[in-house]
Amino acid sequence: MSDSEWSVELARELYGLNNYMRQEFIDVDDEGFLVVKVNGYRARLLDLMKKFGLSNAYVRVLPAIRWAMDQVVRAYLETSEEAQYRGRLIPVYPLKVDANPVVVETIWRHGRRYNWGFEVGTLQELKSIEKYLSEETGVLVVDGFKTSEELEALKKHAERGWRVILTIESEREAELAGRFLDSIEVGVRLKPMTRTGSKWSFTMGFASKFGMTLNHLMMMVKDFPFLKKALTTIHVHGGSQITDIKAVARLAHEAVSILEDLRELGFENLNVIDLGGGLAYPYLDLRDGSHESPNYTVRDYFKAVLSAFRKSKRHPDLVFENGRIITSAHRIVVAKVLETREYGPEEYEESLDLDFIERAKDMKELERSLVEFREVLAKMEGKEEWGIRAKHIIETTRARMINSVVSKVMRMVLDNPLELSEVLKYPTLFKIVTSPSKRFIVSYSLFADIPDKTIVNQYFQVVPLTRLNEKPHVLASLSDLTCDSMGEYREYYSYVSRVYDKRQAFTGMDSRLMAVPGVKVKLGGIPLHLPSSGEDYYIAFLDTGAYQDMLAMKHNLIGEPPEIIIDESSEGELRVECLKCESKGYTDMKTAGQV
Ligand SMILES: *Cc1c(COP(=O)(O)O)cnc(C)c1O
Known about the structure:
Elements: H1 8-14, E1 26-28, E2 34-38, E3 41-44, H2 45-52, E4 56-61, H3 62-82, E5 89-94, H4 101-111, E6 117-120, H5 123-128, H6 130-133, E7 139-142, H7 148-159, E8 163-168, H8 171-178, E9 185-189, H9 214-223, H10 227-230, E10 231-235, H11 245-264, E11 272-274, H12 298-309, E12 317-320, H13 324-327, E13 331-342, H14 355-359, H15 363-382, H16 388-415, H17 427-433, E14 438-442, H18 446-449, H19 452-455, E15 462-464, E16 474-479, E17 488-489, E18 492-494, E19 521-523, E20 526-528, E21 538-541, H20 548-551, E22 563-568, E23 574-579, H21 589-592
Helix pairs in contact: 3-4, 3-12, 11-12, 15-16
The structure holds pyridoxal-5'-phosphate.
Pyridoxal-5'-phosphate binds at residues 94, 96-97, 119, 143, 237, 240, 276-279, 321-324.
């Protein structure tokens, strides 16, 4: 392949590596290897996998967590200064996002300089950070269902100097809080009316599982008059991953208006707004406001929030309770391709007449006749009494149809002044030319490693560890090692701003369309290289550092793989350590059953 057909720069775009939250740490080198960068030191991920002899691993880049924390604090300081905002930032880390001890330790140690505290939602989470609670002091926000056992524990920490903000949601909790007023602060969680359009926006509105309505609060105050003085904080949470900045702004406006009104009604000590989580992580950084690609940055978030909060006469402090933005980038799932198979049928014998494909004058005609032909084919495939010969013919027909359409479309685009985007007008054609031709069997478990793919159809960026200086060969689906049909990953959002040669938009071997310049397109498979025999070809799933550790499932007894921890030494050098490395990964039979 000539150089003009591909470039590392194009790979950066196609694989979504120009990303404001992780480009500091993850990049491609000139020879096409995916590398982790820390303080100017680089390590090829392939070298790390080979060094420890692993077929799969979680690679944790701990400096990415610290960097995200620094970005948050810096963005707040800059935007609050620009807006002449006087309220302070109170950052806390919500443990439900990732309570892995390595992660919590990183956040705690680095967070000391910013007084970064914790948010806990259960007694168990509280117990998991006991060692930090007795070490120093800070801020502790307590959500979730509260018990007197939990409050006794909180009282102890409060008396040692922790600032405990207990957010209540019911009469029972108000009564409970009333008994501990000399040590803890009280907040109230309200149901926001703003709709944020997040996948989790069912956590808002009156039917939300969480919080109280304003009416309910006003009635409760009659029974618990101490609340008028005791309430310091109002808490609203708009659901995780709010991808539209306008929704963030609306939520901030709603919160600050409620704060102002309540102050007028005599809640004179209200001086904190906890906006919950919601700051969206750019799984894809195209800023289009889709579920995977928020239309704003951390800086834009604070701008929107503070411009709403400024309307308040006494600027409230802001509790920053976002965790997804802090931990997402740090965890990379790396998995080896163990085998490759055909995705669909192959050509074997003669087929039905497919001349209509060659004869089609333009895409419009091709689309129309394809729609008709596919119906005929589907009817034939639906019959039960086919013998082996008829099956051969049907399979060959389907295979040849796909191959002919793919090559015809490629020729139509390359030989004519047609724009690549022309294909977007024809859904059947588009689906065929972006369909996978290969199935890669990969050493991972979607249920254990990226469970949110099944739970909320979360998008994760997929990148090969090698050959990023070569044009991808095929579109492939990634089957995992479980025996579950849902254990397959094949959706891919592709975006490149431009190509120099239309040939660059097609894969090298199966001639699939993998990009349309200037347009975000959804492919049915992932652009990858066909590993040669004996080649160590690995794939990385990026941004798996939020929620995935905590939600991991043990389907087919596939448990956790080894972990490669990347950190910096006190001299600022790259430091690499392998945890559970003797297990070698999922394909080692010795450990496959140990969970
Ligand atoms: C889940 C949750 C968070 C964390 O939200 P992210 O946007 O996922 O970081 C914060 N606060 C509360 C109350 C939550 O339930």
